[in-house]
Amino acid sequence: MKYAIETFDLTKKFGDFLAVDTLNMKIENKSIFGFLGPNGAGKTTTIKMLTCLAQPTGGSANVAGYDINESPNEVRQKIGMVPQLVSLYGDLTVRENVELCADFYGMPRDLKEVRIEELMELVDIKYAQNKLVRQLSGGQKQKVSVVASLVHQPDILFLDEPTIGLDPTTKRVLWDLITDLNEKGHTIILCSHDMYEVELLCDNVGIINQGTLAAFDTPQGLKDTMIREEEDTKKAKLGTIIDKIEQENPIGQESSFKDLKGAVADLERENGKTKQMSIMVSNLNDKMVDEIQMLPVVFEVSKHHSGRVIMEMDEKCKTAVNDVIWAVMENNGNITSISTKDPSLEDVFVKVTAKEKEE
Amino acid sequence: METKKVMWMLKKDLIVLWRHKPRLMSLILFPIIMITLFGYGMGGTLDNIPIVVVDQSHGAVTDQTLNAIKNMSLYDVKGIISDPEKGREMVESGQVKAAIILPPNYDNLTSPQPQSVVMYVDSSDQMASQALIPTTQALFSKISGQLGLEKMQMNSSGSTASSQISQSASNQTGIQVNTSQVSSSGSGGIVASIQNLANTINFQVDKIYGDIKYIDFLVPAVIAMTVMMSCMMGMGESIAGERERGELARLFMTPTNVSTVVGGKIISKLIIETGRALILIVAAVILFGIVIKGSMWLTLLLLVLTALCFVGFGIMISARVSTQEDYVQMVMPFTMPMMFVSGVFYPLATMPWIFQKIAYLVPLTYANDALRAVMLKGANLGDVWVDVAVLIGFTLLFFAMGVRSFNRDV
Question: The pTM is what?
């Protein structure tokens, strides 16, 4: 089975409101898939349909090889779900909750016991197994929810914003767990608003917006696509600007180069496509700063007394960092530290969802 | 500033109310239903109690007595028959609340012995028997007085004649007694006349289920009502509450059918409610000395069936609601009126005909009827099979509708 999940024109309407609109996507088996979307985009509704917690009003989907409309119980047997809101019995203990789930999945007694022990140790919640769930912290409840969802050894695990409200340490424990599970062969569907989390964990990412799939690729693929799209737009705009400058200023004059740089910088800022770079030079002098300023890829430079130079530069130029380092070294500068900020998945998310909104 | 905050809280509550239509409907309908039922039910008078009259004599006195009975609004004469045993059977079977047995010598005014009028009364219906006994006693006391007066007049005139008696007291109840023939020995003297005057009719009451206290009458229905209330309110917590807290979602994530979840809820609720019913019965026996005349097992079976029926009702209502508050508001217009319509506290006979008809659409009426029959009259399953069949019918209907309309989406 190549795909863990395939949807075919999956649709959900609430009255006149179209929450999910003929969604078609394929999620590879044994991958970690990040499912992103702004609030109200149809993310949770899609997850509910795929986990048979809500009936589609149109279309269908195959989950773990079973049709969600025709074989919902077979689908449920093959999947686990960690919902956004913890759905456990508050007046039952941790162990009772997990045992209830195991029995509802029809697990044999001996296997159940072994599995519960194993999972409780894995997520480190065994120490609280006799505590009532309502007495646990948010992170502990989430761990119990994970155990309850994994107890029957599902092929696919759905996690709907599992780390929301968790402290950084608990988040990392959960991330490690997700990676471990994936390495053991589980397909993971991760719904999250935490772009760092998605970028860190996911093999593929889908962005849903207004009920339709707006983007689908690897995290790097999405970023590359965005860069390419923006380069095309920039080239078109830049051509217009160059034409204008050439008409107004004779070629060869210094001012025309500065004007061109300034115009490009304005354009990049307008598009939000500048990259910030910071270098620390132990013997910084004004000549070095001027050399950096003259580089075509550098739009703006600011010098600090501490020896730090912060510059805005063309994000797409792959030699930009090399050019800056070369300029400093040619002036015998000693670079002690260097840092850059690349475009993030968050940038892609904002762009994709904003583009959909404009359309 | 504080006023503004208070006004905002009010505004918020009104907006929420407006946006939850079931709550709004309940708010409007519930008080109307309650005041209507209280007004017509508890504020009304006891009328049209079904009775049967056994006429074994056939004569003018009988005719006038029957007319007097028919003219009283308290009675609804379901028949005039001639067999006293049949009259008693009709009371025992619940067709009528009382049977008035006029003796074979009722029209014989010459007899020195008083005529014995017997009334078999269904003492399991506390309110009906409390209304019937004194009124009927007063009626025959007046008839007896009229007949005695006529006898005295006949004795004093020493002749045989027809006379018509019409007195102010009889006007009040519409009684007019005509005697076509009264014989007199003519030599009986004053002593015999006074004796006759005093003993014209001997009215006897036969409470066929013995002396039943109000608490005896109340307990079976209160048990049924308690089971109803706890089942219906409990299902709100069990389904709507769990749905609201997301607990039901956990079950629906597993390969489990709606019927299994509903079935599990029913069984657990049934066991808890049977336990509650047992505690109620034991408490009633220990604290109030209640005696269950019928089978204890049949009583329990009826309570289980009642619980099952109202659990089904709860499932039907909670099938589509998403919050416990909505559920409570939706069942309120059913539970409270059901208590008053089904004759828990007072008989159906006191209510307007439309409410008496509605009572037959309410399962609690059948539960009350069957439990009273078993606990007070010692009825067996054969005697209450209609009630049992109707309760089973309601139960199946509620479950079918509940499972069919159950919203699995979470």
Answer: 0.66
